[in-house]
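Morning F.,

Quick status update on the modeling queue. The single chain you submitted on Monday has been processed. Sequence for confirmation:
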Amino acid sequence: MCDITLEQALTVIEAAHKKAEELGTKMDIAVVDAGANLKAFIRMDDAFLGSIDIAIKKAKTARFFNMPTGELGKLAQPGQPLYHIEFSNGGLITFPGGLPLKDKDGTVIGAIGVSGSTVEDDHEVALAGAEALLK
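Structure tokens below.
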């Protein structure tokens, strides 16, 4: 199994942190490895305490299913095939802000989870982190 290195995780955190500052938001940003274990985390000054758990769970959710948490959320709505999936695996987060992290070959090596603002901002900050791996 390919796994994210600490150097890569810190690159992701740094890029996401920079994007959060550009947006004027205060975020909790988590990176998990290929096994969905916490690899790196920051809580910006004055970021919501409740968003710590959400950021970590978004990262884990994205890694467990290798898809953006917002996409999983569409499948988890009433009447959809994965309705109530958020109650599995010790609790999942199925709204935007979690993304799988891929290396330059397209292999999933971990995931990022971001929480602390609107789901649109959370997603944008997560995307900035994920894209930093491809540079």
